């Protein structure tokens, strides 16, 4: 099923994310995670491509497995280090696996090698390459501005270009202050970006990791959030309770304010998704989903 149809008419949508196994790592644990996540009946599940050490070659297989569990899959695809030939190979694998949705991303430059000649410089180039395909296309956006872009207005201009090239929806980078998202959404609508914007929520269950991730991505940590990490960050069970509660509260506030599409960065932790979905059970049961 295409994600643009899942989101049509502003229907409530809660999606999850999974990393494929690293190179040479076994598939079984990731498949078990997919099975557990699928039992929560997410609207769709996205499968990363080369992020957090996940092997790019395994994205199509895991996305195919997600669909065999009855959940539509969104396969991430990056283009910065791709050639037209390698891209054609990836697209063929995705088609073979029955995938209908692609998240078009630039990716980050490898530290140790230059991109191959003829590379795609920006995600918009990938969107242009795929716009005549039958895939439903999504892209990334940044409520706190992409770290390489000096001005939010320019970053939104680049996003508009990407959307005009053929995106059907966009998913945001994580944020921990919903007001940042609301202001960003208003700016996007002002600048004529009208596609559905899926709010990306990261449940934080590991205090040490999050400080590093936020420093790299430029994500603002509200003082209420910092207090949680300071107090519970080195106690895993406490941090799990607090992180699940914080993410749940963010999601309820988004729903209450009319944002109907939420993507949970589940980070291969099914127990986190299960606890958040249990907290939302009554809300989701009464919603049109
Ligand atoms: P782009 O849209 O190309 O933007 C990158 C930068 O270039 C921005 O600063 C933008 O303002 C600027 N720019 C864009 N177009 C132009 C232009 N025409 N001229 C000048 N400047 C321009 N990474 C992975 O490796 N694998 C994943 O699976 C993955 N999944 C992700 C999922 C989400 C929801 C998000 C938010 C990010 C994900 N990433 C992933 C990270 C992503 O690859 C990086 O954030 C990357 O740095 C930018 O990717 P992009 O697609 O946003 O790039």
Provide a descriptive summary of the structure in words.
The chain is of the alpha/beta class and 289 residues long. The chain has a single domain, classed as TIM Barrel. It is 45% helix and 13% strand. It contains twelve helices and eight strands. It has helices at residues 3-7, 28-38, 59-68, 84-96, 123-130, 152-164, 178-190, 207-217, 223-232, 236-256, 270-279, 281-286, and strands spanning 13-18, 45-47, 73-78, 101-105, 136-141, 169-172, 197-201, 261-264. The chain has an eight-stranded parallel beta barrel, surrounded by five helices. Helix 5 (123-130) packs parallel to helix 6 (152-164) and helix 9 (223-232) runs antiparallel to helix 10 (236-256). The longest helix is centred in the last third of the chain and has 21 residues, at 236-256. The mean pLDDT is 94. The structure holds flavin-adenine dinucleotide. Flavin-adenine dinucleotide binds next to strand 3, helix 5 and helix 6.
Helical run tally: 12
Strand element count? 8
Quick one: overall form? globular
Uncertain runs: none
In short:
By secondary structure, the protein is of the alpha/beta class. 45% of the residues lie in helices and 13% in strands.
């Amino acid at each position: 099923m295409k994600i643009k149809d899942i989101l049509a008419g502003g229907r409530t949508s809660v999606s999850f994310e999974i990393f494929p196994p690293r190179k040479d790592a076994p598939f079984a644990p990731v498949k078990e995670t997919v099975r557990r996540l699928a039992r929560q009946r997410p609207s769709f599940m996205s499968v990363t491509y080369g992020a957090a050490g996940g092997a790019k070659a395994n994205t199509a297989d895991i996305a195919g497995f997600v669909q065999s569990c009855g959940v539509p899959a969104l396969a991430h695809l990056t283009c910065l280090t791709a050639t037209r030939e390698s891209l054609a190979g990836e697209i063929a694998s995705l088609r073979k696996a029955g995938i209908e949705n692609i998240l078009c991303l630039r990716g980050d430059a490898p530290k140790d090698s230059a991109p191959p000649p003829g590379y795609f410089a920006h995600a918009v180039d990938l969107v242009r390459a795929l716009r005549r395909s039958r895939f439903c296309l999504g892209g990334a956006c940044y409520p706190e501005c992409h770290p390489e872009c000096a001005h939010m207005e320019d970053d939104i201009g680049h996003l508009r270009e990407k959307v005009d090239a053929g995106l059907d929806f966009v998913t945001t980078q994580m944020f921990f202050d919903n007001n940042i998202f609301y202001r960003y959404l208003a700016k996007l609508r002002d600048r004529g970006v009208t596609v559905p914007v899926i709010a990306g929520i990261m449940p934080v269950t590991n205090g040490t990791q999050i400080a590093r991730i936020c420093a790299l991505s430029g994500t603002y940590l509200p003082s209420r959030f910092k207090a949680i990490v300071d107090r519970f960050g080195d106690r895993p069970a406490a941090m799990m309770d607090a992180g699940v509660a914080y993410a749940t509260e963010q999601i309820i506030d988004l729903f209450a304010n009319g944002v109907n599409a939420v993507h949970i960065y589940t980070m291969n932790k099914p127990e986190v998704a299960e606890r958040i979905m249990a907290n939302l059970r009554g809300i989701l049961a009464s919603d049109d989903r």
